[in-house]
């Protein structure tokens, strides 16, 4: 079985109740390929998770944007993996660069979070990616390998992990990685998984790309052999998100 195309919409810290209802309506009315072809996961801020979960079409799923590193308790302001499970939220995004960089989440902390979330039965979109400085210094692979390694050291079952390669310089900048740049890192990451985890995990794990993906550039990126989908920020708040979901057809026809 091939890797099913995966499209995540990361709304980040955006939206009012009215805006959320409008986006959900647009998504519900959009024509998307069937669930056999594409897995769609929408990630609103915590406070909107119940509303989105209740009102979203049943073939799309929801994700939280973060969760606490261990069992809940006296951790003011945090949301635990158990709470997400209790609410029927199947997915969580962990290790997003905005959290790594702005909130100083280390590779080890992200690895611990991924392991704990999986242990509670959540599925995880784990994000890795280099800064512009790191890319220019030629250390892209070292950086993403170290980020992935911190996860691999703590996780034995990769069935419920989607790896998102999100170069920091491409996030929210309008400066998308070229299809060749994305393919190069995805293919290296897959080789890394083959060598450091095992060949089966390398073949089956979906590696998705994030960073200024939009309706115009998604098809060419989707056509790359090691690009298994997208994690979309800004464009996931717009009707063109449906076009990005449809780019799954590129794979089906490949
Ligand atoms: O960070 C991202 C998704 O997690 C990408 O954001 P943009 O699509 O806005 O560049």
Description:
By secondary structure, the protein is of the alpha/beta class. The chain has a single domain (5-30, 43-252), classed as Aldolase class I (TIM Barrel, Alpha-Beta Barrel), CATH 3.20.20.70. It has 12 helices and 8 strands. It has an 8-stranded parallel beta barrel with strand order 1-2-3-4-5-6-7-8, surrounded by 4 helices. Helix 3 (81-86) links the parallel strand 3 (60-64) and strand 4. The longest helix has 18 residues, at 179-196. The radius of gyration is 17 Å and the shape is globular. The mean pLDDT is 97. The protein binds 1,3-dihydroxyacetonephosphate. One of its GO terms (molecular function) is triose-phosphate isomerase activity. Belongs to the triosephosphate isomerase family.
Globular, elongated, flat, extended or rod-shaped: what is the shape?
globular
Helix count, DSSP H or I runs of 4 or more residues:
12
Low-confidence stretches: none
Q: Give the DSSP E fraction (strand runs of 2 or more residues).
A: 15-25%
Major β-sheet strand ordering? 1-2-3-4-5-6-7-8
Q: Could you tell me the CATH topology label.
A: TIM Barrel
Relative helix content = 40-55%
Tally of strands: 8
Question: What ions, cofactors and ligands are bound?
Answer: 1,3-dihydroxyacetonephosphate
In the CATH hierarchy, the architecture is Alpha-Beta Barrel
Mean pLDDT: 97
Order of helices and strands: EHEHEHEHHEHHEHHEHEHH
Structural class: alpha/beta
Distance from first to last alpha carbon: 15 Å
The CATH class is Alpha Beta
Radius of gyration from the alpha-carbon trace, in angstroms: 17 Å
The biggest beta sheet reads: 8 strands, parallel, barrel
**CATH homologous superfamily (4th level) name:** Aldolase class I
């Amino acid at each position: 079985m091939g890797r099913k195309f995966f499209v995540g919409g990361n709304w980040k810290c955006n939206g009012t109740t009215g805006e959320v209802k409008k986006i959900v309506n647009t998504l519900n009315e959009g024509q998307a390929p069937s669930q056999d072809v594409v897995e769609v996961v929408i990630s609103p801020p915590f406070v909107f998770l119940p509303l989105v979960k209740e009102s979203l079409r049943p073939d799309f799923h929801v994700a939280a944007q973060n969760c606490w590193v261990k069992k809940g308790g006296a951790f003011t302001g945090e949301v635990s993996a158990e709470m997400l499970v209790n609410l029927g939220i199947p997915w969580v995004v962990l290790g997003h660069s905005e959290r790594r960089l702005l909130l100083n989440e280390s590779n080890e902390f992200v690895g611990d979070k991924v392991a704990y979330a999986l242990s509670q039965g959540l599925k995880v979109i784990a994000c890795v990616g280099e800064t512009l400085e790191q890319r220019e210094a030629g250390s892209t692979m070292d950086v993403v390998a170290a980020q992935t390694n911190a996860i691999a050291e703590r996780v034995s079952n990769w069935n419920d992990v989607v790896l998102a390669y999100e170069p920091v310089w491409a996030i929210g900048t309008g400066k998308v990685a070229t299809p060749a740049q994305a393919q190069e890192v995805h293919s290296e990451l897959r080789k890394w998984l083959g060598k450091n985890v095992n060949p089966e995990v390398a073949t089956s794990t979906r590696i998705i790309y994030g960073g200024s993906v939009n309706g115009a550039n998604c098809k060419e990126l989707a056509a790359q052999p090691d690009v298994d989908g997208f994690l979309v920020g800004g464009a996931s708040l717009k009707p063109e998100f449906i076009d990005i979901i449809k780019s799954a057809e590129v794979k089906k026809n490949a």
